[in-house]
Amino acid sequence: MLYYSRLRMLGVVGICLISALLCLPNFIKSPSQSLPWHQVHLGLDLRGGSYLLLQLDTKTLQHDRLQSLEGEIRQGLLSAHLGYGAIQRDDATTSVLVTPRAESEKDNDRKVLEDLTPSTPGELAISEKDGHFVVSLTKESIRNRAREAVSRSIEIVRRRIDSTGAIDPSIAREGEDRIVLELPGISDPQRIKSLLGTTARMTFHLVAPDPTHAGPGATMLPLPEGRGEIAVEDRIDVDGANLADAAATMSDNQWVVELKFDNKGADDFARITTQNVGKPFAIVLDGRVLTSPVINGPITAGRGIITGNFTARSASDLALLLRAGALPAPLTVVEQRSIGPSLGVASIHAGVISLTVGFVLVVLFMLLFYGRFGLYADIALFANLIMILAILSLFEATLTLPGMAGILLTLGMAVDANILINERIREEVRQGRKPLQALQAGFQRATGTIIDSNATAFLAHVMLFVFGTGAVRNFALTITIGIATTLFTTLVLSRMLIVRWYAHKRPQELPV
Amino acid sequence: MFSRPLLRFVRDDRQIHFMRGRHAGLIISALLSIASVILFFTPGLNLGLDFRGGVIVETHSPTAEDPAHMRAILKAGHINAASVQSFGSPQDMRIAINLPRGGEDEHVTQQLVDHVRTVIVQAVPGVQIQRADAVGGSVSSELFRDGVLALLFSLGMILIYIWFRFEREFALSAVITLVLDLTKTIGFLVVTRFEFDLVMVAALLTILGYSTNDKVVVYDRVRENLRKYRTMPLKELLDLSINETLNRTLGTSMTVFLAALPLALFGGSTLTGFATVMLFGIVVGTSSSIFIAAPLLLLMGQKRLRKEG
């Protein structure tokens, strides 16, 4: 066991040196663009910034789909010259209940229902219950729809956030219907929250013939600034999805939003304004009427403006939302964590001071209680710290304050392996073994115990990583990485140091 | 210093008869754990924002601030039921608002945090908002569920691991000891009124991992000695094993303690509670290896591990 091949020693020293190199990017600036320069990311708690957890309203999503399904069924039955007893939507079971008009029409009804065109294959399931047909959305299609909606929302959220000029935002899916948004440097997320709180679905409708009363095919919608309600026809004449551009500009000394339609939008807009000169129409945003001007004449250029008591900020925000596109369903903020920049700096100090003091205390303890072998343990401990930092840098992992605590606790636990080995060697010496045999037996017997004790800590923290979120997850991450590096630095590095020292000096007595 | 270590906890030839104190140890531990369980139900844990839901805003004012003044400011902004405390220094305030009971509306919580911020920024010139957190009802109950699951699964995994590595008596006494450790730590949390949040769950898990580690080392030695001294009575054998591993038990506890200590002293509001609970857990975990885990093994293993007593 005294012989370590040159290759093996080079390997161990090499790993330590590479680790040290990997840590460098955290402390100095990159000398050249072409070098890979990976460094640890500071968490929001150290950097200052906001974390927002957004929940997609899947209920609205299903409700919208059921509503259109109900329309399709009605349309299908009518165009097949069939009537119906009743068509009822049931949001709780995500299904539409169809009551046939007469028993004799049942077979034909079924045919119509089976011929419905689902938006995805396998979306609909048709069953019969108590003489009714139940057309329901399958569980899988509901899940797929939500998943797809989250992906689309992420895209739109990204566009909205990017145009606010936020630096380095991170947007990611979480679970089935949530989105995590991390905004470094933005410690007051109020504006972002209000930008994300609007679906921004804009539609153009004609105002109903009798604006004070919602007749069939019309709905009462609120006017701006509490000016009451107005009846707006349900039919969408121009859809906001057909916008090519939107911008905030000044017109007649007030802020307005200027719209530019794409080809289809321009055609729709031209047709409706030509056919309805002199009538009022309504521009509706998220179920609220923005403005309801009277059509003065045909507008064929595919451009229009929205007026309505805008400030510079609200006009540019609306333009931004319209440019980015509408969300498929409303997003709700369900969790917010914001840290101010000065608290972040204070936390970095707290972490660095704790790490330094803790490290020094452990190093001193090992020197005083274990002498020369304690010194070797300390060298291994330093290598351990470097390696943890190197792995975090390599994967550009995030480091939070609890993560720093995790590193420090790992270092406190890491010397346990050295203590176990030392105590074992000491026992073997006391039982009268020669130095070499004592070393050998000490290493051999302690190894099993070391692996046992690290395995249990490893298991506990893997569970924490699986179930934890945010900062706690980071704590589990640094400890789990730390356990792996500990096995290397104690079982390989500090053992090599001890053995090389022994082979070099051949002492009669071991310093234990 | 390099030819021989300077310090040592106990002399190698010292034999302490720990097993004599086994009844006292078990009784004290049982009483403390029972008290902790009672404390857990009344008054109960001081749930933190993660698990309770609601709003927390921390402010830093340029001059010393009076909590009563801050409360009046909030009241003028129609924010009631806010608890205001200064923490750290008189310039630092912590405003906590619990989630309204049965308030399922996530919008309310989110609007509240922005409203609190606006009111304070307008009323206190030069104030800095250090932290503004808002956790809705659905998220807080999910976080709580995940925290409990993490604890249960960890305990389960540790049990399975020990079950495979040791005989049944060892596994059972280890897990009983761990549960006793855990209840005492929870009792400590109740008494100190530290907020119980996800970071505390992390502390509990780390204590569990550390405490298990300690038991594994002692039990490893017990098992080794069972093979080595085939006729030694179990009681003596346990004493011998504890004494043989005593320097390592104290040494490792010491290094982990030394690592956690600066976190408790300089860690700031996030880590002080966490680290203090860790320190408590280290002391409990170390002493329970000696005074609980070994006596339990004696009780359970008397018949199976050794015929004579």
UniProtKB/TrEMBL annotation, chain A:
It holds the Pfam family SecD_SecF_C. Residues 334-501 form the Protein export membrane protein SecD/SecF C-terminal domain. Keywords: Cell membrane, Membrane, Protein transport, Translocation, Transmembrane, Transmembrane helix, Transport. The keyword Metal-binding does not apply. Residues 150-208 form the Protein translocase subunit SecDF P1 domain. Its main location: membrane. The chain crosses the membrane at residues 346-368, 375-395, 401-421, 442-469, 475-498. Residues 227-329 form the SecDF P1 head subdomain domain. SUPFAM superfamilies: Multidrug efflux transporter AcrB transmembrane domain (SSF82866). It is found in: Cell membrane. It is a multi-pass membrane protein. Belongs to the SecD/SecF family. SecD subfamily. NCBIfam families: 2A0604s01 (TIGR00916), secD (TIGR01129). Forms a complex with SecF. Part of the essential Sec protein translocation apparatus which comprises SecA, SecYEG and auxiliary proteins SecDF-YajC and YidC. Part of the Sec protein translocase complex. Interacts with the SecYEG preprotein conducting channel. SecDF uses the proton motive force (PMF) to complete protein translocation after the ATP-dependent function of SecA. This is Protein translocase subunit SecD. The gene is secD.
From TrEMBL, chain B:
SUPFAM superfamilies: Multidrug efflux transporter AcrB transmembrane domain. Its main location: membrane. Residues 123-302 form the Protein export membrane protein SecD/SecF C-terminal domain. Pfam families: Sec_GG (PF07549), SecD_SecF_C (PF02355). The keyword Membrane applies. Part of the Sec protein translocase complex. Interacts with the SecYEG preprotein conducting channel. SecDF uses the proton motive force (PMF) to complete protein translocation after the ATP-dependent function of SecA. Forms a complex with SecD. Part of the essential Sec protein translocation apparatus which comprises SecA, SecYEG and auxiliary proteins SecDF-YajC and YidC. Belongs to the SecD/SecF family. SecF subfamily. This is Protein-export membrane protein SecF. The gene is secF.
